[in-house]
Amino acid sequence: MASSEADDKGEASVGSSEGQEVPEEGQVKDAESSKATQDLAEAADGSTKAAVKAVKAGRAPLYVVVASTAPMKVAAVERLFAPPALPALLRPRGPAAGALGVRVEGVKTASGVNEQPFGHEETMRGALNRLAAARAARPGADFYVALENGLFDVLCSDSVGGGGAPQSFDMAWVVIEDSEGRRALAHSAGVEMPAAAAAASKASGFSTTAGGEVARAAGAGGDGADLVDPQDPHRHLTSGFCPREDMLLGALTVAWGQLSRLCSSNEPA
């Protein structure tokens, strides 16, 4: 069997060196260097094998909890913590700096706000409520991440003091908190929602989302599926240039940069 053959070879090399060529010192160093390089590569790619080695060495994978099970939110966080960004992410980590690999888990949480949050205060409150719920559900994580999209009205006019109806935009507030309670917040870019979709959401008492109204207006295809994803109207409204996941990643990157500065400089959060 292959495993027995490997074991036999190992025993022979340990038991006796008689008749065998002894490697020179330079060859030993080269072999050690090659092994170190391989270990570093495994650490960088966050592979399962590297994670197992880390656990055995007392260095568990970095544990990140996302306060949602929505695929787009979890995917955006996974991209934030994915190699090759991982080594840079670990540098200011302090207690978790020895972690190897990343484990991202999404947990279902309640926002505690309307189905369609409206304005900065309600949207941010939804994100913070989710963050607190995730922290309670999964204590002991290295990072907690919460994301909440909201609807925002901006009064735009061509002249100072001019009238006109407000224009409605969708954007997200995100928050990242580390194990020591330091946190950073940021918001995404905004995508203008069609006036009819925003009006329908408002008329429902914000029990329906503007994104859902965009999908409803677009209708269904021949297979009965929505032509527009109600969770990602951003892709449709930007002609595919900026899907929601990319917008969330942009906000997460800003928040992470701010948190990294706090961690590395020990500034108060």
* Residue-averaged pLDDT: 79
The share of residues in helices is: 40-55%
The total strand number stands at 6
Give the SSE string: HHHEHHEHEEEEHHHH
Overall shape? globular
Largest sheet: 6 strands, mixed
Unreliable stretches? 1-20, 32-53, 92-97
Distance between the termini: 59 Å
CATH class of the domain at 58-189 and 241-265: Alpha Beta
Classify the beta-strand content into a percent band. 15-25%
CATH topology of the domain at 58-189 and 241-265: Maf protein
Gyration radius, rounded: 25 Å
Secondary-structure class: alpha/beta
In quaternary terms, these chains amount to single chain
* Assigned CATH architecture of the domain at 58-189 and 241-265: Alpha-Beta Complex
Number of helices: 10
What keyword list fits this structure?
10 helices, 15% strand, 269 residues, metal-binding, Maf protein, six-stranded mixed beta sheet, EC 3.6.1.73, disordered N terminus, alpha/beta
3D architecture notes:
The protein is an alpha/beta fold and 269 residues long. The chain has a domain at 58-189 and 241-265: Maf protein (Alpha-Beta Complex). It is 46% helix and 15% strand. It has 10 helices and 6 strands; from the N terminus they run αααβααβαββββαααα. The chain has helices at 2-15, 25-45, 48-56, 71-80, 86-90, 119-137, 195-203, 210-218, 233-237, 244-265, and strands at 62-66, 102-106, 143-154, 167-178, 183-187, 191-192. Strands 1, 2, 3, 4, 5 and 6 form a 6-stranded mixed β-sheet that branches. A hairpin with a 4-residue loop joins β4 (167-178) and β5 (183-187). α4 (71-80) packs across α10 (244-265) and α7 (195-203) crosses α8. The longest helix is centred in the C-terminal third of the chain and has 22 residues, at 244-265. Mean pLDDT is 79; it is low at 1-20, 32-53 and 92-97.
